[in-house]
Amino acid sequence: MAYKGIVFDKDGTLIDFSPTWLPVYRYAALELTNNDAQLARKLLAEHGYDYATGRFIGGSLLAAGTNHEIARAWAEYLPDVDDEVKLESLSVRLNQIFQHQGALNSTPVRSLQTTIRALKQAGLKLGVATSDSYQGIHNTLEPFDVISEFDFLCGYDSGYGVKPEPGMVLAFCQAMSLTPAEVIVVGDNRHDMEMGKNAQAGLCVGVLTGASTRDDLEELADIVFEDIAGLVGLFDR
Asked: How far is CA 111 from CA 8, 16, 146, 214, in A?
């Protein structure tokens, strides 16, 4: 099969996860708890950050959840958020924090620009499918002068469903006039691999620049690379 398109997860795949998102989550937790350091620490610890190892847990809410899912989980610890209207307000506020702080802290993976440009020059259609918002894609990728290389962008709020549902990949296929078998899905979490499998993508590639370990990914991924630079070798023939 000749692969013609690649759908990338964003955080942990194009963006180095921990250097970007640990300061973002810490800021957000302190902001929402009115600088209650103990409660802010609990929001991170209960939802995927392991303070003992200094790592996010692969597949955890903070590693793989949408902004709205994080807002709903954190709301359980915030006494002022006691109905759906207040939850929606919290979700909007959290999304704004993530967009602003994500842009300030965004850290690219190694060889982001050279890898994306090499794949584009190989004639591939490129897309981003993220659990972040659509605007968050722009905020975190625009500083690195690669966003124009992508043909398709979608977030959890773009209307194609959420991971591990297949909708984002299928929307990319439809927009690019490709079949799922012609598409590679690349990500750092099991949710990404499950999304690819559910869409019947031709190849699911795991990368180790996010929260998951090789063992986490190998069960579902067809290939695991250290980072996205490994993709170039698939087309360097």
From this structure: 15, 11, 11, 20
Domain extents for the chain?
A: 5-16+108-235, 18-105
The CB-side HSE value for 157 (13 A sphere, CA atoms) comes to 13
The span from the CA of 7 to the CA of 21, in Å, is: 21
Give domain 5-16+108-235's CATH superfamily: HAD superfamily/HAD-like (3.40.50.1000)
Lookup: tokens for 123: 């004639």
| Residue 58 and residue 213 in contact, taking contact as beta carbons nearer than 8 Å | yes
Q: Which residues have C-beta within 8 Å of that of residue 182, sequence separation ≥ 6? A: 1, 2, 3, 4, 5, 173, 202
Give tens-digit pLDDT for 8-45: 999 999 999 999 999 999 999 999 999 999 999 999 99
Beta bridge partners of 8: 128, 186
pLDDT of 1 above 70: no
Helical packing angle, 84-105 and 67-75, nearest 10°: 120
Give 86-91's long-range contacts (Cβ < 8 A, gap of 24+): 90/32, 91/67
